[in-house]
């Protein structure tokens, strides 16, 4: 069980990296350049930045900093903290996924996993927590970008988990 959890966490880190890259490619194709988030390409919430002008990873990092150290982060600190929030979330959900699916090896499971993360996190939890606007306001192209990025996250998480557990 621990092997599956650890493999899933590593997969989640790889999936988060791949997701960031996929979002950058999409945004560059649509807009010609990517938004300039504090964390750069490692803090990709491109669809949200393009649509809302804000980034949930940065909002969450600032909220955590205020609660833990009693102040907001400056841009240099945020450049580290915002990607850390995103990669930590990816690792945690990857670990949960790995602990549940450690006996399965189907790639389609990864796509489904990515879509479940998209639905639960981007579509439901983030608006409820005030980390993004209501999904009812989200343009179709931005929603498709988010769906595609999460599918990449899920596929990469599963492929990495499987490679670690079943070399």
- The average pLDDT is 86
Order of helices and strands: HHHHHH
**SS-based structural class?**
mainly alpha
Q: How much helicity do the residues have?
A: over 70%
Strand content: under 5%
Count of beta strands: 0
Number of domains: 1
What does this structure look like?
By secondary structure, this protein is an all-alpha fold. The protein has one domain. Helix content is 75%, strand content 0%. α1 crosses α4, α1 runs antiparallel to α6 (140-165) and α2 runs antiparallel to α6. The model has no long low-confidence stretch (mean pLDDT 86).
List the helices and strands and how they pair.
Blueprint: H1 2-31, H2 46-52, H3 56-69, H4 75-101, H5 107-128, H6 140-165
Short structural description:
The protein has 167 residues and is mainly alpha-helical. The protein has helices at residues 2-31, 46-52, 56-69, 75-101, 107-128, 140-165. The protein has one domain (2-165).
